[in-house]
Amino acid sequence: MKLPFGYVGCKQDEVQEVLKYLPSSFNTLVDPFCGSCSLSAGIWEKYPNTSVVVGDTYETLIEVLGVIRYEDPDHISAIIEGELVDITKERWVSSVKKPNWIWFLISNIWAGIRPGMFPANKKKPNFAEKLNTPEYKRFLQACSIELFDGLEMMERYRDDPDAFLVLDPPYIGSDNTAYLGRDKKLKLDELYETIKVFMLSCKCKVMLIINHSIFVRYMFAGMIKHKYPKRYKMSGSRVEHCIITNY
Fold first, then answer.
1. What pTM was computed for the model?
2. CA 229, 233, 234, 235: dihedral to nearest 10 degrees?
3. Using one digit for the tens of pLDDT, what is the confidence trace for 120-144?
4. For domain 1-247, which architecture applies?
5. Are 220 and 196 in contact, with CB atoms under 8 Å apart?
6. Domain ranges of the chain
7. Which of 17, 148, 190, 192 has the fewest CB atoms within 10 Å of its CB?
8. How does DSSP assign 1-65, residue by residue?
9. How far apart are CA 178 and CA 141, in angstroms?
């Protein structure tokens, strides 16, 4: 499925790997660390009759998803173009440090995910064309989109055997500065421990996708179902990603 914007942790090119390891049945798909919703959108595309709930703690991101869900891409593009009249580097940098929904889309469609990156040598994209993603729009219209803490959302479905939670949290050992400063002190070891305990004690089905490391190998021993190669577009580095499940 074509996505209208790039975002940190996007799994658009990994959906086919994920689809091989889905549970045999589920009625509700939950994406508590949704980001661009690349995973949940890819799963929904194959199972369009599934109820979908997506959430994130980043308020601007949730606003962006709502705008794309309801607004015409030409209208969004016109608003963006208005913001870019006589743009200077100073205004660009100040606008993307703490972006509203308009500047979130500008920076993620044009310059990539790095805050402050000024695309002086990069041709301006056709925003209307980039935002013309009818399948993604239909996906968002089928979703319940929530500004909500991921762990709290997980707890809501703990005892639901028909729920499938796909988890894509920030990664240990990766550059997390692209989270725009909203999570400067990410206690990822504690987060992963909480997720593991949840996976072993809940009745719902859970898939966790994270980068492979010695820490991950030992923490999730016996739960890693598959590993596959991944090349990060920004850094060019090559790593392995793990698919970890409780089913």
1. 0.90
2. 40
3. 667 889 999 999 999 999 999 999 9
4. 3-Layer(aba) Sandwich (3.40)
5. yes
6. 1-247
7. 190
8. ---SS--TT--GGGHHHHHTT--S--SEEEETT-TT-HHHHHHHHH-TTSEEEEEES-HHHHHHH
9. 27
